[in-house]
Amino acid sequence: xxxxxxxxxxxxxxxxxxxxxxxxxxxxxxxxxxxxxxxxxxxxxxxxxxxxxxxxxxxxxxxxxxxxxxxxxxxxxxxxxxxxxxxxxxxxxxxxxxxxxxxxxxxxxxxxxxxxxxxxxxxxxxxxxxxxxxxxxxxx
Amino acid sequence: xxxxxxxxxxxxxxxxxxxxxxxxxxxxxxxxxxxxxxxxxxxxxxxxxxxxxxxxxxxxxxxxxxxxxxxxxxxxxxxxxxxxxxxxxxxxxxxxxxxxxxxxxxxxxxxxxxxxxxxxxxxxxxxxxxxxxxxxxxxxxxxxxxxxxxxxxxxxxxxxxxxxxxxxxxxxxxxxxxxxxxxxxxxxxxxxxxxxxxxxxxxxxxxxxxxxxxxxxxxxxxxxxxxxxxxxxxxxxxxxxxxxxxxxxxxxxxxxxxxxxxxxxxxxxxxxxxxxxxxxxxxxxxxxxxxxxxxxxxxxxxxxxxxxxxxxxxxxxxxxxxxxxxxxxxxxxxxxxxxxxxxxxxxxxxxxxxxxxxxxxxxxxxxxxxxxxxxxxxxxxxxxxxxxxxxxxxxxxxxxxxxxxxxxxxxxxxxxxxxxxxxxxxxxxxxxxxxxxxxxxxxxxxxxxxxxxxxxxxxxxxxxxxxxxxxxxxxx
Lengths: 140, 476
Known about the structure:
Distance between the termini of chain A: 10 Å
Structural class of chain A: alpha/beta
Number of strands of chain A: 5
Oligomer: heterodimer
Radius of gyration of chain A: 14 Å
Strand content of chain B: 15-25%
Radius of gyration of chain B: 22 Å
Distance between the termini of chain B: 25 Å
Strand content of chain A: 15-25%
Number of helices of chain B: 16
Low-confidence stretches of chain A: none
Mean pLDDT of chain A: 87
Number of helices of chain A: 4
Number of strands of chain B: 15
């Protein structure tokens, strides 16, 4: 089974970058992990062709939550289409993976390159969740 | 487990259109309002100049290649390091690949839907509806050719989506013969697809509905765009030519003196400023030769130029311009198609030039100073201006982005379209879509205009007697 982990976020927006940090740490552990600054069609194109994909992103709120693919439609620019739409379009032409989306709650987004201590504290738990998901799919 | 994620974090910047109706239900005013996340330019201060092409490319996910290249060009000037010929060609090749896939996205997934599908129900107003009407094979080609252009960006830029290859004085990576051949094959296929796209859209352009769309908004503004030494459209380099609503050249500015021509007007209801031509002056939201409002982007580029630098696109240019300046806002789509064809042809021409595989790809930087880099983002002129200290650290950074350049014109187009279609308070989804369609012609990137890093949907509100009577949020 071919699987991929994608961390989504902006490295210049403080806690928004938490998904990128998680992806980086999982890559160091040997997983196939990528970083994406854009959602929508570019994210969908990034995971096309894989069997299984885990997306890690930040959301305004508290805690760590699994996000339904249909609900993951807010990260869209005026010059973009939503992730669920992009996923459906691509699914007509190419193999699209089973997708799990893990959201990490953040309080405030500000320009900066540091994660807050609260968000940093959530990272080990997120890594554990993602590794468990990968294990369930028999991905080493 | 299911959770609503409203709003997700990168939803910081809401674009907003406010339409105010009078007592009779007709439009009295309409505005486009963009919020601002301040601090990005300040964030750049104190950083190493060499990091700017990477940092600025992350301003938003929409046009990283444009920011990457504008920053690299600003550094060329700041370090007095004019790149060698091969480096300039590689940068331009990457840039045309970006232009191709960005225009492709807008024409087939976003604004182009307004043109190709017309007033269809909301649920069909998307690329799925497009495939339903034009067939599955077209959908496959759209995806395939966007992918081709993105692969070219990856080959040249070192990374997909966020290139890292352009550095002060050139590029950090060349291409070998094998890569050259791969790019040539993809570029050739892109030309064919661009021709097919032109034919598809031209069928619409010959119909009555197209005339109706053209009639929604026409504003006689000044135009601004980059041209080469023969006054042909160039997205990567050249001088900034400014023409009057009648097509008379009023300036041809180098990157060193472009800022002398632009002044910014401030309105208390908008965070984003309204650039205008200093020599003409700000006369309010009006068009004509006495008003300094100018437009940028595909239509502006075609209007300021005397021609295109490739054969098939030149033929299309002549047919489109027919010796005139084109002011209809929906003509942005036709101009975008000509550019998509031109970008594909230009990729093909550049990659077939022997010099493209040369190994002289960088001029070493000298002492740091001040630099201004200008490129054409898909949506218009983008300017990066930096002042560096003697250690090569950024002392000042100022970015004038494409959508800001179009800010005044977009507001006028929204107001014009709203006035034409909203009568006696009747506002339904199809009517509202026409107002938004006028706004989408410009392919605006609000995240970038506001310097808000990330994504921003659009909220349209209709007011009467000080109360909101309708509010719609658009995502995709």
